[in-house]
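#struct-pred

JT: dropping the chains for the assembly here, can someone run the whole complex?
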Amino acid sequence: MSIEANSIKQDFPIFKIKMNGKPLTYLDSTATSQRPNQVIDAVDAYYKEYNANIHRGIYQISERASEAYDESKRKVAKFINAESMQEIIYLRNATEALNLVALAWGDANISKGDHILISEMEHHSNIVPWIVLAKKKEAVLDYIKLDAKKAKLDMGSLKEQLEKRPKIVSVTHASNVLGTINNVREITKMAHGKGAVVLIDGAQSAPHMEVDVGDIDCDFYAFSGHKMLAPTGIGVLYGKEAILDKMEPLLTGGEMIKSVEHHAYSWNDLPWKFEAGTSNISGGIGLGAAVDYLSSLGMHNVREHEKQITRYALEKLSKINGVTVYGPDINDMDERGGVISFAIEGIHPHDVSQIFDSEGIAIRSGHHCAMPLVTKTLAQPALSRMSFYIYNNESDVDKAIEAINKAKKIFKIA
Amino acid sequence: MPIDIYAEEIVSHYEHPHNKGEITDASVSQHNYNPVCGDEMTMYLMINDGIVSDVKFKGVGCAISMATASMLTDFIKGKTLKEIEGMGINTIIDLIGIDPGPARLKCATLSLRTLKEAVFVYEHKEVDRATKEL
Ligand SMILES: Cc1ncc(COP(=O)(O)O)c(C=O)c1O
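RK: done, full complex below.
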Protein backbone atom coordinates (compact mmCIF):
# COMPACT_ATOMS: atom_id res chain seq x y z
CA MET A 1 0.00 0.00 0.00
CA SER A 2 1.34 3.39 -0.79
CA ILE A 3 0.34 6.64 0.81
CA GLU A 4 -2.20 8.91 -0.81
CA ALA A 5 -1.48 12.27 0.71
CA ASN A 6 -4.59 13.81 -0.79
CA SER A 7 -6.93 11.39 0.88
CA ILE A 8 -4.93 11.54 4.11
CA LYS A 9 -5.41 15.32 4.09
CA GLN A 10 -9.16 14.72 4.43
CA ASP A 11 -8.53 13.30 7.89
CA PHE A 12 -6.89 16.53 9.05
CA PRO A 13 -9.43 19.28 9.70
CA ILE A 14 -6.74 21.97 9.79
CA PHE A 15 -6.40 21.75 6.03
CA LYS A 16 -9.82 23.37 5.71
CA ILE A 17 -8.44 26.65 7.04
CA LYS A 18 -6.83 29.40 5.02
CA MET A 19 -3.66 31.22 5.99
CA ASN A 20 -3.41 34.73 4.62
CA GLY A 21 -6.28 33.89 2.32
CA LYS A 22 -4.51 30.86 0.81
CA PRO A 23 -5.10 27.18 1.50
CA LEU A 24 -2.70 26.03 4.20
CA THR A 25 0.47 24.35 2.98
CA TYR A 26 2.08 22.90 6.05
CA LEU A 27 5.80 22.23 5.75
CA ASP A 28 6.79 22.39 9.40
CA SER A 29 6.02 18.93 10.76
CA THR A 30 9.50 18.70 12.21
CA ALA A 31 8.41 21.32 14.73
CA THR A 32 5.03 19.72 15.33
CA SER A 33 2.72 17.61 13.20
CA GLN A 34 -0.92 18.26 12.49
CA ARG A 35 -3.53 15.97 14.07
CA PRO A 36 -6.13 13.83 12.36
CA ASN A 37 -9.80 13.54 13.36
CA GLN A 38 -9.08 10.08 14.68
CA VAL A 39 -6.81 11.55 17.38
CA ILE A 40 -8.97 14.59 18.08
CA ASP A 41 -12.04 12.35 18.38
CA ALA A 42 -10.28 9.93 20.74
CA VAL A 43 -9.38 12.79 23.07
CA ASP A 44 -12.86 14.23 22.72
CA ALA A 45 -14.46 10.88 23.52
CA TYR A 46 -12.45 10.52 26.70
CA TYR A 47 -13.60 13.91 27.96
CA LYS A 48 -17.19 13.47 26.85
CA GLU A 49 -17.83 9.81 27.52
CA TYR A 50 -15.52 8.41 30.19
CA ASN A 51 -13.64 11.25 31.84
CA ALA A 52 -12.30 9.94 35.17
CA ASN A 53 -9.00 9.54 36.93
CA ILE A 54 -7.20 6.30 36.29
CA HIS A 55 -5.98 3.34 38.33
CA ARG A 56 -7.91 3.98 41.50
CA GLY A 57 -11.56 4.19 40.73
CA ILE A 58 -13.72 1.13 41.14
CA TYR A 59 -16.37 2.34 38.78
CA GLN A 60 -17.00 1.77 35.17
CA ILE A 61 -15.75 4.96 33.54
CA SER A 62 -12.57 4.97 35.61
CA GLU A 63 -11.90 1.41 34.61
CA ARG A 64 -12.51 2.33 31.03
CA ALA A 65 -10.13 5.32 31.27
CA SER A 66 -7.46 3.17 32.94
CA GLU A 67 -7.82 0.55 30.28
CA ALA A 68 -7.57 3.11 27.45
CA TYR A 69 -4.49 4.70 29.00
CA ASP A 70 -2.76 1.36 29.61
CA GLU A 71 -3.76 0.13 26.19
CA SER A 72 -2.07 3.15 24.62
CA LYS A 73 1.16 2.12 26.36
CA ARG A 74 0.86 -1.37 24.95
CA LYS A 75 0.37 0.16 21.50
CA VAL A 76 3.43 2.37 21.91
CA ALA A 77 5.47 -0.61 23.15
CA LYS A 78 4.50 -2.56 20.06
CA PHE A 79 5.10 0.45 17.82
CA ILE A 80 8.78 0.67 18.77
CA ASN A 81 9.09 -3.04 19.53
CA ALA A 82 9.75 -2.71 23.25
CA GLU A 83 9.47 -5.88 25.30
CA SER A 84 6.47 -4.65 27.26
CA MET A 85 4.61 -1.59 28.47
CA GLN A 86 6.73 -1.71 31.64
CA GLU A 87 9.38 -0.06 29.52
CA ILE A 88 7.18 2.80 28.35
CA ILE A 89 7.20 5.90 30.56
CA TYR A 90 4.89 8.76 29.66
CA LEU A 91 6.26 12.24 30.16
CA ARG A 92 5.58 15.64 28.63
CA ASN A 93 7.82 15.39 25.59
CA ALA A 94 11.20 14.23 24.30
CA THR A 95 12.91 17.01 26.20
CA GLU A 96 11.54 15.80 29.50
CA ALA A 97 12.49 12.23 28.60
CA LEU A 98 16.09 13.24 27.83
CA ASN A 99 16.20 15.26 31.04
CA LEU A 100 14.91 12.35 33.08
CA VAL A 101 17.86 10.25 31.95
CA ALA A 102 20.34 13.04 32.62
CA LEU A 103 18.83 13.86 36.01
CA ALA A 104 17.91 10.43 37.36
CA TRP A 105 20.33 8.04 35.67
CA GLY A 106 23.03 10.70 35.34
CA ASP A 107 22.81 11.80 38.92
CA ALA A 108 23.34 8.25 40.18
CA ASN A 109 25.96 7.17 37.66
CA ILE A 110 28.11 10.14 36.65
CA SER A 111 30.96 11.21 38.89
CA LYS A 112 33.84 13.63 38.77
CA GLY A 113 36.06 13.11 35.74
CA ASP A 114 33.62 10.80 33.92
CA HIS A 115 33.04 11.36 30.22
CA ILE A 116 29.68 12.00 28.58
CA LEU A 117 29.52 11.73 24.80
CA ILE A 118 27.03 13.50 22.52
CA SER A 119 27.39 14.77 18.95
CA GLU A 120 27.66 18.03 17.02
CA MET A 121 24.30 17.27 15.44
CA GLU A 122 22.15 17.50 18.54
CA HIS A 123 19.05 19.49 19.36
CA HIS A 124 19.40 21.75 22.42
CA SER A 125 17.30 19.23 24.34
CA ASN A 126 20.08 16.70 23.98
CA ILE A 127 22.86 19.17 24.74
CA VAL A 128 21.84 21.38 27.63
CA PRO A 129 20.92 18.62 30.13
CA TRP A 130 24.42 17.20 29.60
CA ILE A 131 26.19 20.55 29.97
CA VAL A 132 24.30 21.03 33.23
CA LEU A 133 25.07 17.51 34.44
CA ALA A 134 28.74 17.78 33.50
CA LYS A 135 29.01 21.09 35.36
CA LYS A 136 27.31 19.74 38.43
CA LYS A 137 29.37 16.56 38.55
CA GLU A 138 32.62 18.01 37.21
CA ALA A 139 32.38 15.49 34.41
CA VAL A 140 33.65 16.00 30.86
CA LEU A 141 31.29 16.52 27.94
CA ASP A 142 32.69 15.38 24.57
CA TYR A 143 31.30 15.73 21.07
CA ILE A 144 31.33 13.31 18.15
CA LYS A 145 32.38 15.44 15.20
CA LEU A 146 30.17 16.10 12.24
CA ASP A 147 31.57 15.54 8.77
CA ALA A 148 29.98 18.75 7.53
CA LYS A 149 30.55 17.94 3.86
CA LYS A 150 28.68 14.66 3.99
CA ALA A 151 26.36 15.95 6.73
CA LYS A 152 27.05 12.80 8.69
CA LEU A 153 28.60 11.89 11.97
CA ASP A 154 32.29 11.19 11.65
CA MET A 155 32.54 7.56 12.69
CA GLY A 156 36.29 7.92 13.18
CA SER A 157 35.63 10.65 15.68
CA LEU A 158 33.12 8.41 17.45
CA LYS A 159 35.71 5.67 17.68
CA GLU A 160 38.26 8.08 19.05
CA GLN A 161 35.89 9.51 21.63
CA LEU A 162 34.83 6.05 22.77
CA GLU A 163 38.41 5.39 23.82
CA LYS A 164 37.75 7.85 26.63
CA ARG A 165 35.26 5.30 27.92
CA PRO A 166 32.23 7.58 28.27
CA LYS A 167 29.65 6.43 30.78
CA ILE A 168 26.86 7.43 28.43
CA VAL A 169 26.51 8.13 24.73
CA SER A 170 23.49 10.18 23.71
CA VAL A 171 22.87 10.85 20.03
CA THR A 172 19.98 11.72 17.80
CA HIS A 173 18.48 9.13 15.50
CA ALA A 174 17.54 11.72 12.90
CA SER A 175 18.66 15.33 12.68
CA ASN A 176 15.97 18.01 12.76
CA VAL A 177 18.23 20.31 10.73
CA LEU A 178 20.13 18.15 8.26
CA GLY A 179 17.64 15.31 7.93
CA THR A 180 20.52 12.91 8.44
CA ILE A 181 19.51 9.50 9.73
CA ASN A 182 22.26 8.13 11.93
CA ASN A 183 23.13 4.47 12.06
CA VAL A 184 22.14 4.19 15.69
CA ARG A 185 22.36 0.42 15.65
CA GLU A 186 26.05 0.60 14.79
CA ILE A 187 26.66 3.49 17.19
CA THR A 188 24.98 1.54 19.98
CA LYS A 189 27.01 -1.56 19.24
CA MET A 190 30.26 0.39 19.29
CA ALA A 191 29.31 2.26 22.46
CA HIS A 192 28.22 -0.90 24.25
CA GLY A 193 31.50 -2.46 23.23
CA LYS A 194 33.20 0.21 25.32
CA GLY A 195 30.82 -0.17 28.22
CA ALA A 196 28.67 2.92 27.69
CA VAL A 197 24.96 3.23 28.26
CA VAL A 198 23.20 4.48 25.12
CA LEU A 199 20.38 7.01 24.86
CA ILE A 200 18.83 7.74 21.48
CA ASP A 201 16.90 10.94 20.79
CA GLY A 202 14.08 9.61 18.65
CA ALA A 203 12.10 12.86 18.36
CA GLN A 204 12.62 12.89 14.58
CA SER A 205 12.64 9.18 13.91
CA ALA A 206 9.65 7.71 15.77
CA PRO A 207 7.20 9.79 13.69
CA HIS A 208 8.79 8.99 10.35
CA MET A 209 10.19 5.47 10.14
CA GLU A 210 10.05 1.98 11.55
CA VAL A 211 11.80 2.00 14.89
CA ASP A 212 12.84 -1.20 16.60
CA VAL A 213 14.46 -0.48 19.95
CA GLY A 214 15.21 -4.18 20.35
CA ASP A 215 17.16 -4.22 17.14
CA ILE A 216 18.93 -0.91 17.89
CA ASP A 217 19.60 -2.34 21.36
CA CYS A 218 19.79 1.14 22.91
CA ASP A 219 19.18 1.45 26.65
CA PHE A 220 16.95 4.50 26.35
CA TYR A 221 14.95 6.02 23.53
CA ALA A 222 13.11 9.35 23.82
CA PHE A 223 10.38 10.86 21.63
CA SER A 224 7.44 13.28 21.55
CA GLY A 225 3.83 12.53 20.75
CA HIS A 226 3.10 15.93 19.21
CA LYS A 227 5.48 15.29 16.31
CA MET A 228 3.60 12.10 15.42
CA LEU A 229 -0.04 13.19 15.25
CA ALA A 230 -0.72 12.97 19.00
CA PRO A 231 -1.67 15.90 21.25
CA THR A 232 0.94 18.18 22.79
CA GLY A 233 2.09 17.39 26.31
CA ILE A 234 2.64 13.68 25.89
CA GLY A 235 6.05 12.16 25.28
CA VAL A 236 7.77 8.87 25.83
CA LEU A 237 10.89 7.55 27.43
CA TYR A 238 11.60 3.95 26.57
CA GLY A 239 14.11 2.27 28.84
CA LYS A 240 15.23 -1.32 29.16
CA GLU A 241 13.44 -2.83 32.11
CA ALA A 242 16.67 -3.87 33.84
CA ILE A 243 18.03 -0.32 33.81
CA LEU A 244 14.72 1.34 34.74
CA ASP A 245 14.37 -1.05 37.65
CA LYS A 246 17.58 0.23 39.16
CA MET A 247 16.84 3.88 38.46
CA GLU A 248 15.43 6.17 41.13
CA PRO A 249 12.43 8.32 40.22
CA LEU A 250 12.88 12.06 39.82
CA LEU A 251 9.49 13.18 41.07
CA THR A 252 7.65 11.56 43.93
CA GLY A 253 4.11 11.65 45.23
CA GLY A 254 0.89 9.96 44.26
CA GLU A 255 0.51 7.24 41.65
CA MET A 256 4.21 6.40 41.58
CA ILE A 257 4.09 4.86 45.02
CA LYS A 258 3.04 1.44 46.22
CA SER A 259 2.82 2.06 49.94
CA VAL A 260 3.54 4.97 52.21
CA GLU A 261 4.04 5.08 55.96
CA HIS A 262 4.94 8.12 58.00
CA HIS A 263 8.64 7.75 57.33
CA ALA A 264 8.87 5.06 54.69
CA TYR A 265 7.67 4.25 51.20
CA SER A 266 8.08 1.74 48.45
CA TRP A 267 8.06 2.67 44.78
CA ASN A 268 5.34 1.50 42.48
CA ASP A 269 6.09 -1.00 39.71
CA LEU A 270 7.32 0.04 36.30
CA PRO A 271 6.43 2.12 34.40
CA TRP A 272 4.36 3.97 37.02
CA LYS A 273 7.37 4.59 39.26
CA PHE A 274 8.33 7.47 36.97
CA GLU A 275 4.89 9.02 36.61
CA ALA A 276 4.16 11.01 39.74
CA GLY A 277 0.72 12.53 40.09
CA THR A 278 -2.24 12.36 37.74
CA SER A 279 -1.03 11.56 34.26
CA ASN A 280 -1.83 13.30 31.00
CA ILE A 281 -4.65 10.83 30.47
CA SER A 282 -6.18 12.42 27.39
CA GLY A 283 -2.72 12.84 25.89
CA GLY A 284 -1.93 9.18 26.42
CA ILE A 285 -5.21 8.15 24.86
CA GLY A 286 -4.54 10.50 21.96
CA LEU A 287 -1.09 9.03 21.50
CA GLY A 288 -2.63 5.58 21.35
CA ALA A 289 -4.94 6.77 18.58
CA ALA A 290 -2.00 8.36 16.75
CA VAL A 291 -0.07 5.12 16.89
CA ASP A 292 -3.12 3.30 15.50
CA TYR A 293 -3.32 5.79 12.67
CA LEU A 294 0.36 5.50 11.76
CA SER A 295 0.35 1.74 12.15
CA SER A 296 -2.57 1.43 9.78
CA LEU A 297 -0.58 3.35 7.18
CA GLY A 298 2.51 1.31 7.93
CA MET A 299 5.71 3.05 8.96
CA HIS A 300 7.56 1.57 6.04
CA ASN A 301 5.09 3.32 3.74
CA VAL A 302 5.39 6.55 5.67
CA ARG A 303 9.12 6.48 5.17
CA GLU A 304 8.88 5.65 1.47
CA HIS A 305 6.38 8.43 0.96
CA GLU A 306 8.64 10.99 2.59
CA LYS A 307 11.64 9.75 0.66
CA GLN A 308 9.75 10.27 -2.57
CA ILE A 309 8.73 13.85 -1.77
CA THR A 310 12.16 14.70 -0.42
CA ARG A 311 13.84 13.42 -3.55
CA TYR A 312 11.42 15.42 -5.66
CA ALA A 313 12.10 18.56 -3.62
CA LEU A 314 15.87 18.10 -3.72
CA GLU A 315 15.73 17.78 -7.50
CA LYS A 316 13.66 20.92 -7.86
CA LEU A 317 15.81 22.90 -5.43
CA SER A 318 19.01 21.91 -7.19
CA LYS A 319 17.73 23.70 -10.29
CA ILE A 320 17.28 27.06 -8.60
CA ASN A 321 20.19 29.47 -8.73
CA GLY A 322 21.49 30.72 -5.43
CA VAL A 323 19.85 28.04 -3.29
CA THR A 324 22.08 26.00 -0.99
CA VAL A 325 20.68 22.82 0.51
CA TYR A 326 22.12 21.29 3.66
CA GLY A 327 22.10 17.61 4.53
CA PRO A 328 23.06 14.34 2.87
CA ASP A 329 23.18 14.09 -0.89
CA ILE A 330 20.17 13.15 -3.02
CA ASN A 331 21.88 9.85 -3.85
CA ASP A 332 21.91 9.01 -0.20
CA MET A 333 18.19 8.87 0.46
CA ASP A 334 18.52 5.83 2.74
CA GLU A 335 20.27 8.05 5.23
CA ARG A 336 18.12 11.11 4.73
CA GLY A 337 14.75 11.97 6.18
CA GLY A 338 12.13 14.46 5.04
CA VAL A 339 13.80 17.58 6.37
CA ILE A 340 15.40 20.10 4.05
CA SER A 341 17.29 23.07 5.44
CA PHE A 342 18.20 25.63 2.84
CA ALA A 343 19.49 29.12 2.29
CA ILE A 344 18.82 31.55 -0.53
CA GLU A 345 21.76 33.75 -1.29
CA GLY A 346 21.03 37.38 -0.51
CA ILE A 347 17.81 36.72 1.42
CA HIS A 348 17.71 36.27 5.15
CA PRO A 349 15.82 33.13 6.26
CA HIS A 350 13.32 35.24 8.20
CA ASP A 351 12.39 37.11 5.10
CA VAL A 352 12.06 33.80 3.29
CA SER A 353 9.65 32.53 5.95
CA GLN A 354 7.60 35.65 5.79
CA ILE A 355 7.21 35.53 2.05
CA PHE A 356 6.23 31.84 2.33
CA ASP A 357 3.68 32.83 4.97
CA SER A 358 2.10 35.33 2.60
CA GLU A 359 1.54 32.38 0.24
CA GLY A 360 -0.08 30.31 2.97
CA ILE A 361 3.01 28.15 3.40
CA ALA A 362 4.35 27.35 6.86
CA ILE A 363 8.08 26.78 7.05
CA ARG A 364 10.52 27.53 9.84
CA SER A 365 13.56 29.78 9.95
CA GLY A 366 16.19 30.16 12.60
CA HIS A 367 18.71 27.96 14.32
CA HIS A 368 16.12 25.20 14.87
CA CYS A 369 17.15 24.71 18.49
CA ALA A 370 20.50 23.46 17.31
CA MET A 371 22.68 26.53 17.70
CA PRO A 372 26.01 24.71 17.94
CA LEU A 373 25.24 22.89 14.69
CA VAL A 374 23.84 25.82 12.72
CA THR A 375 25.93 28.72 13.93
CA LYS A 376 29.19 26.95 14.70
CA THR A 377 29.53 23.81 12.58
CA LEU A 378 27.62 25.11 9.53
CA ALA A 379 28.58 28.73 10.28
CA GLN A 380 25.17 30.15 9.31
CA PRO A 381 23.27 32.73 11.39
CA ALA A 382 20.04 30.94 10.53
CA LEU A 383 18.53 28.56 7.99
CA SER A 384 15.13 28.05 6.42
CA ARG A 385 13.67 24.59 6.73
CA MET A 386 10.85 22.73 5.06
CA SER A 387 9.83 19.33 6.29
CA PHE A 388 7.39 16.72 5.10
CA TYR A 389 4.93 14.27 6.54
CA ILE A 390 2.19 11.92 5.47
CA TYR A 391 -0.19 14.68 4.36
CA ASN A 392 2.32 16.40 2.09
CA ASN A 393 2.72 15.75 -1.59
CA GLU A 394 4.59 17.01 -4.61
CA SER A 395 2.21 19.89 -5.15
CA ASP A 396 3.21 21.27 -1.73
CA VAL A 397 6.79 21.23 -2.95
CA ASP A 398 5.77 23.03 -6.12
CA LYS A 399 4.18 25.77 -4.04
CA ALA A 400 7.37 26.10 -1.99
CA ILE A 401 9.42 26.40 -5.15
CA GLU A 402 7.09 29.13 -6.44
CA ALA A 403 7.48 30.95 -3.13
CA ILE A 404 11.26 30.80 -3.44
CA ASN A 405 11.03 32.30 -6.89
CA LYS A 406 8.74 34.99 -5.57
CA ALA A 407 11.20 35.81 -2.79
CA LYS A 408 14.00 36.10 -5.31
CA LYS A 409 11.86 38.45 -7.37
CA ILE A 410 11.04 40.69 -4.41
CA PHE A 411 14.73 40.90 -3.55
CA LYS A 412 15.67 41.27 -7.22
CA ILE A 413 17.92 38.25 -7.26
CA ALA A 414 18.58 36.62 -10.58
CA MET B 1 1.11 39.22 7.91
CA PRO B 2 0.86 41.46 4.89
CA ILE B 3 3.42 40.98 2.19
CA ASP B 4 3.73 44.74 1.61
CA ILE B 5 6.18 44.73 4.48
CA TYR B 6 8.54 44.15 1.57
CA ALA B 7 7.57 47.41 -0.03
CA GLU B 8 10.04 48.79 -2.52
CA GLU B 9 11.45 51.19 0.05
CA ILE B 10 12.36 48.49 2.56
CA VAL B 11 13.99 46.27 -0.03
CA SER B 12 15.89 49.24 -1.36
CA HIS B 13 17.19 50.23 2.10
CA TYR B 14 18.15 46.59 2.65
CA GLU B 15 20.10 46.44 -0.59
CA HIS B 16 21.66 49.86 -0.25
CA PRO B 17 21.73 50.62 3.45
CA HIS B 18 22.45 54.18 4.53
CA ASN B 19 25.00 54.85 7.27
CA LYS B 20 26.49 51.40 7.12
CA GLY B 21 29.99 51.24 8.53
CA GLU B 22 31.97 52.15 11.57
CA ILE B 23 32.98 55.34 13.38
CA THR B 24 36.39 54.62 14.83
CA ASP B 25 36.41 57.50 17.30
CA ALA B 26 32.74 57.24 18.21
CA SER B 27 31.49 58.81 21.42
CA VAL B 28 29.83 55.51 22.19
CA SER B 29 29.22 52.17 20.49
CA GLN B 30 26.83 49.43 21.46
CA HIS B 31 26.46 45.84 20.29
CA ASN B 32 23.29 43.79 20.35
CA TYR B 33 22.36 40.25 19.45
CA ASN B 34 18.99 38.68 18.94
CA PRO B 35 19.45 35.03 19.85
CA VAL B 36 16.14 34.02 18.31
CA CYS B 37 17.12 35.00 14.76
CA GLY B 38 20.84 35.41 15.08
CA ASP B 39 20.56 39.06 14.00
CA GLU B 40 23.48 41.13 15.13
CA MET B 41 24.06 44.86 15.24
CA THR B 42 26.56 47.45 16.42
CA MET B 43 25.72 51.16 16.53
CA TYR B 44 28.33 53.91 16.58
CA LEU B 45 27.27 57.37 17.73
CA MET B 46 29.06 60.67 17.49
CA ILE B 47 27.57 62.98 20.10
CA ASN B 48 28.16 66.73 20.44
CA ASP B 49 26.41 68.85 23.05
CA GLY B 50 23.71 66.25 23.58
CA ILE B 51 22.99 65.98 19.87
CA VAL B 52 23.73 63.07 17.54
CA SER B 53 25.98 64.54 14.91
CA ASP B 54 26.78 61.26 13.16
CA VAL B 55 25.76 57.63 13.36
CA LYS B 56 26.76 54.40 11.65
CA PHE B 57 25.82 50.78 12.10
CA LYS B 58 27.23 47.39 11.30
CA GLY B 59 25.36 44.13 11.37
CA VAL B 60 23.89 41.07 9.77
CA GLY B 61 20.24 40.27 9.70
CA CYS B 62 17.01 40.13 7.79
CA ALA B 63 15.65 42.82 5.52
CA ILE B 64 13.41 44.17 8.24
CA SER B 65 16.17 44.63 10.79
CA MET B 66 18.66 46.05 8.31
CA ALA B 67 16.23 48.36 6.52
CA THR B 68 14.91 49.77 9.80
CA ALA B 69 18.49 50.39 10.93
CA SER B 70 19.15 52.24 7.70
CA MET B 71 16.02 54.39 8.06
CA LEU B 72 16.44 54.96 11.77
CA THR B 73 20.03 56.13 11.47
CA ASP B 74 18.94 58.65 8.83
CA PHE B 75 16.16 59.80 11.10
CA ILE B 76 18.16 60.39 14.27
CA LYS B 77 20.88 62.57 12.87
CA GLY B 78 20.56 65.96 14.57
CA LYS B 79 18.21 64.62 17.22
CA THR B 80 18.88 65.20 20.92
CA LEU B 81 19.60 62.34 23.29
CA LYS B 82 16.42 63.30 25.12
CA GLU B 83 14.41 62.81 21.93
CA ILE B 84 15.99 59.39 21.39
CA GLU B 85 15.20 58.33 24.93
CA GLY B 86 11.56 59.02 24.19
CA MET B 87 11.44 56.89 21.06
CA GLY B 88 9.49 53.62 21.00
CA ILE B 89 7.86 51.12 18.73
CA ASN B 90 5.67 53.82 17.20
CA THR B 91 8.76 55.61 15.98
CA ILE B 92 9.58 52.49 13.97
CA ILE B 93 6.04 52.01 12.69
CA ASP B 94 5.97 55.62 11.52
CA LEU B 95 9.35 55.24 9.87
CA ILE B 96 8.65 52.07 7.91
CA GLY B 97 4.99 52.88 7.41
CA ILE B 98 3.73 49.50 8.55
CA ASP B 99 3.19 47.52 11.73
CA PRO B 100 5.63 44.62 11.43
CA GLY B 101 3.39 42.27 13.46
CA PRO B 102 4.38 40.15 16.45
CA ALA B 103 6.62 37.68 14.61
CA ARG B 104 8.88 40.37 13.23
CA LEU B 105 8.70 42.94 15.99
CA LYS B 106 12.11 42.01 17.40
CA CYS B 107 13.67 42.35 13.96
CA ALA B 108 12.13 45.78 13.50
CA THR B 109 13.15 47.08 16.91
CA LEU B 110 16.70 45.71 17.09
CA SER B 111 18.24 48.93 15.80
CA LEU B 112 16.18 51.15 18.08
CA ARG B 113 17.01 49.03 21.07
CA THR B 114 20.70 49.14 20.25
CA LEU B 115 20.55 52.87 19.70
CA LYS B 116 18.75 53.57 22.96
CA GLU B 117 21.10 51.32 24.90
CA ALA B 118 24.02 53.25 23.43
CA VAL B 119 22.48 56.50 24.63
CA PHE B 120 21.91 55.13 28.14
CA VAL B 121 25.47 53.82 28.27
CA TYR B 122 26.77 57.20 27.12
CA GLU B 123 24.79 58.95 29.83
CA HIS B 124 25.83 56.41 32.48
CA LYS B 125 22.21 55.58 33.11
CA GLU B 126 20.49 52.25 33.69
CA VAL B 127 18.74 50.96 30.59
CA ASP B 128 15.06 51.61 31.27
CA ARG B 129 12.35 48.99 31.17
CA ALA B 130 10.71 50.33 28.01
CA THR B 131 13.98 49.83 26.16
CA LYS B 132 14.51 46.34 27.53
CA GLU B 133 11.04 45.42 26.38
CA LEU B 134 11.56 46.62 22.83
C1 LIG C 1 15.97 16.01 17.34
C2 LIG C 1 15.07 16.61 18.36
N1 LIG C 1 15.24 16.29 19.65
C3 LIG C 1 14.44 16.79 20.61
C4 LIG C 1 13.42 17.64 20.32
C5 LIG C 1 12.59 18.18 21.43
O1 LIG C 1 11.27 17.83 21.31
P1 LIG C 1 10.20 18.44 22.29
O2 LIG C 1 10.25 19.91 22.11
O3 LIG C 1 8.91 17.85 21.84
O4 LIG C 1 10.58 18.01 23.65
C6 LIG C 1 13.19 18.01 18.99
C7 LIG C 1 12.12 18.96 18.64
O5 LIG C 1 12.22 19.77 17.76
C8 LIG C 1 14.03 17.46 17.99
O6 LIG C 1 13.86 17.78 16.71
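JT: nice. The pocket of pyridoxal-5'-phosphate is lined by residues A 93-95, 123, 125-126, 172, 176, 201, 203-204, 224, 369 (CB under 6 Å). The two ends of chain B are 20 Å apart (CA to CA).
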